[in-house]
Amino acid sequence: MVILEKPYISDLMLEYLSQHNIPVLANDFARESAKRYQLNLLTDSQMKAEYERNGKIYITSENALDWIYNNLSNHEIIEKISVLKDKFKFRELLRPMYPDFLYKEVTEEELDEINFEKFNPPFILKPSIGFLSLGVYTIYNRQDLEAAILDIKESKMNWKSNFPNSVIGDSKFILEQYIPGTEYAIDAYYNDDGKPVILNIFTHKFASTTDVSDRVYYTSKEIIDTFKHPFELFLTEANQFLQLKNFPMHVEVRVDGNVICPIEFNPMRFAGLSCTDVAYYAYGIRTIEYFLQNKEPAFSEILKGKEGHLYSLILLDKPDKSIPCSVFNYDKLYNSFENVLELRKVNNPNLDIFGFVFTQTQKKNEKELDYILSSDLYEFCDY
Predict the structure, then answer these.
(1) Which of 6, 12, 5, 62 is nearest to 279 (CA)?
(2) Gap between the Cα atoms of 34 and 59, Å rounded
(3) CA distance 82 to 347
(4) How confident is the model at residue 166, as a pLDDT?
(5) pLDDT at residue 116 in the model
(6) Residue 21's pLDDT is what?
(7) What are phi and psi of 289, to 5 degrees?
(8) pLDDT at 155
(9) Whole-structure pTM value
(10) 202 partner at 20 to 30 Å CA-CA among 129, 262, 287, 302?
C-alpha cells in the first residue's frame, strides 16, 4: 500500500502504481493524480485493513506521516518512525555503535546561549526533526553560528507554512560533531526477517566544505561494487538496535576510511521528491516495486556494461524563489550535458525548484557535474 502526498510525485511512479493496481490512499493529492492515471484508491478504513493484512506501507513524501500517526496509532510502526525522525533519539539509540560521538539537543531559546568554545568546531547545527537540508548549518566559527541563528529565526515561519509538524518537528535543534569523509545516500529496506536489502547507493557531491545543498547526487557500478557489502554489514549492525522489519528507508552516511557513520535514517520512503527514480534510469530498478514485492537486485547482472559511467540526479533549485519557471531555458540546460536521460520540468509554487535532470556521464567528463554544481543557474534564466 502507498500514500501519495504533496508536493510532488513523478509520472514514472504513477505509471507503476496504475499498471499494477497498487492500493493507494484516496487523499486529495492522490485524487488529483488519478485524473492523469487510473489508481486503485482506498478509503481510510480500507487502507488500515490493508495494512493489517500485509504490514507494508510506503510513502512518497513525509507529509504522509500525519495519516500514519492518526490512523495506525496502535501499531509499533509509530514508535519506529518517531525514533528515526528525532535525530537526538536516533543518536541515543545507536550510541553503543558510536560511544565517542558528540551531540547535544537544545531548544531554540538555548541557541543564543551556546558555549561556542566548549563545543569544539567544526560542528553541525540542524533541527532535531527535519527534511532535506532545511536548517542544516556547518559551523566553523562564531560568525557562522550567529549567522545560522539569525537565518533560523527568519526562516522558521516559511518552513512551518510548507511542511507539517510531523516533518519538521518543534523548535528543538541538535548540535553534533562534524562527520568527516564522503557522503553517501542509500535507498534500502529491511525485509520481513529484518535483513537489509540495498536498492541503490549514490554519493552526494558538494561544491565546497560548507556546501549543504542537494544539487547533485550520482551512482555508478564502482560505487555499488565498493560499498554494497560494507553498507549491508553496517545496516545489519544498526538493526540490532533499531529492530526494523518491512521498512523502507533513505539512509545518509559519511565514510572516512573504514568508518561508516550515519547522518540519518529517513523512514518509510526512499529518496524524496521521486528522486529515487535515479535507480531506474541507472539500473532499471523501480525501488518501490522491489520493496513491495520483496525483491533483491541481481547487481552482478545489472551492472554489466555500466563501467566508467556516472548516473546523476541534479536538483535545479532556484537561486531566488521569486523567479518564475517560465523564464528558465530548459533547452540550454539540456544541451549542457553529455546524455540527458530525463529532464523533468516542475512548476510547483510549493517547491523552489525549476525541476530535475537525470543524466548519464562518462567518468572522464565528470567536469560537467562540477560545473552545474557550482552554477547559481542564473545563466539559464532568460529575462
Answers:
(1) 12
(2) 17
(3) 32
(4) 47
(5) 74
(6) 98
(7) -65, -45
(8) 76
(9) 0.91
(10) 129
Under a CB-based contact definition with an 8 Å cutoff, are residues 311 and 220 in contact?
A: yes
Which 3-state string (H, E, C) describes 97-165?
Answer: HCCCCCEEEEECHHHHHCCCCCCCCCEEEEECCCCCCCCCEEECCHHHHHHHHHHHHHHHHHHHHHCCH
- Within 10 Å of residue 371's Cβ, how many Cβ atoms? 11
Alpha carbon distance 248, 102 (integer Å): 28
CA 343/CA 359 separation, integer angstroms = 9
Question: HSE-up of 111 (CA within 13 Å, CB side)?
Answer: 24
Per-residue confidence (pLDDT) for residue 174, from 0 to 100:
92
Residue 372 to residue 333: CA distance in whole angstroms: 9
**Taking all residues of the chain, what is their mean pLDDT, rounded to a whole number?**
92
Q: What are phi and psi of 78, to 5 degrees?
A: -65, -45
Helix (H, G, I), strand (E, B) or coil at 166: helix
CA 253 to chain centre: 12
d(CA 288, CA 286): 6
pLDDT for the residue 214: 87
Give the three-class secondary structure for 27. Answer: coil
Separation CA 32–CA 30 (nearest Å): 5
pLDDT in tens, 73-121: 999 999 999 999 999 999 999 999 999 999 999 988 888 888 777 777 8
Spatial separation of the C-alpha atoms in residues 41 and 2, rounded to whole Å: 10
For the chain, list the domains and their CATH numbers.
Answer: 2-82 (no CATH), 87-177 (3.30.1490.20), 182-380 (3.30.470.20)
In this structure, the chain runs to a length of 383
229: cell is 557489502
Distance CA 67, CA 3 (A): 9
Contact 136, 212 (CB under 8 A): yes
The stretches in the chain having pLDDT less than 70 are 130-134, 157-170, 209-210, 212
pLDDT of residue 134: 58
